[in-house]
Amino acid sequence: MHIRPQARTLLAGLAAAALLAGTAGVASATDATPSPKAAGPTGDGAQALCKRVPKIDRRLDRALERLDAGVARRGSVARLQQRVDNAKKAGHSEIATFLQDRLDFRTSLRTSLEQRQKDLNSVKDWCAKNDDGKAGS
Predict the structure, then answer these.
(1) Are 50 and 123 a contacting pair, CB within 8 Å?
(2) Reported pTM
(3) What are phi and psi of 45, to 5 degrees?
């Protein structure tokens, strides 16, 4: 590829300018004082959490419903159990082992989601008693 000398000089100058601008930006960024947001949160976020409670509750309900659904529903424990059984029946031990590990995780996920749901109910009660988190602000 042949580039004219003037274009080559222009490209080299632009590259040098970009390099200098990049290092100047890094140097100025290191000298800056941290912003208040960088210092960390000032509260516990109760008001925002109280606002999101209904959405979180729906998400947990949907996830638990999917896990507890029958064999026909993708993502259900029953469907994955059927796949494990099919792999064992076919003699695919590596596949069965892999799927069994996924099944074990999915089963523990149900327990974890149920615990989150209980915790969220406690948060919901707290929000109702504390004006949706505005009282503590």
Answers:
(1) yes
(2) 0.63
(3) 75, 25
